[in-house]
Amino acid sequence: MLKKLGSILFIAYALSVLCGCDPVTLHKVTSTIFDGVPSLPPPEQLCQEYQVTKVEDEKKKDNVKVASDAAAAGSSHLPYREKRCNACHDKTQDSGLIKPKAQLCFVCHPKIIKGSMAHGPAAVGSCLECHEPHSSNYPALMKTEKAKLCSGCHQEKRLALAMHQKVSSNGMFCVDCHDPHGGASAYFLR
What we know:
Radius of gyration: 29 Å
Pfam family, one: Paired_CXXCH_1
Domain Doubled CXXCH motif: 77-111, 119-158
Strand order of the largest sheet: 1-3
Shape: elongated
Strand content: under 5%
Helix content: 40-55%
Organism: Geomonas oryzisoli
Signal peptide: 1-19
Number of helices: 9
InterPro entries: Multiheme_Cytochr_ET (IPR051829), Paired_CXXCH_1 (IPR010177)
């Protein structure tokens, strides 16, 4: 008896491997060999289930592709990438945003400023001075490359000029030593 059951299981396994995952083919083969195989659901239900599975698989592939494209080309804001526009936008508001522009980023990033001292643009919610809202050719949704971003506003003579020149000549950037949003120490040193 046990040997017969093992043979049946082996045949069922072999059939599933040979027929693949196509439920119609699998049903045809199993109902030909075995008695009492339940009938298939109506074709429209079977097609609908197949369509839903196919759409979900395509979305997964698209999400992986979008994420890898964003990584290669720069960055994109997750709600934008996932087409969740309502995370930031509200058409019923005059501004078109869920919160005033200066408060919007803090909805999802409430602790972006660490410490008691805040960098000017971050302190007043002017995140778009440095960041793009949807996507960017640079990491972290930056408006330009790291080497040029701070100098767009900060053109004053550097304190410890020699040290800053040496550090930058060795390929370091302002954000390697300074937190661009704020901190607990003077000059937002990390």
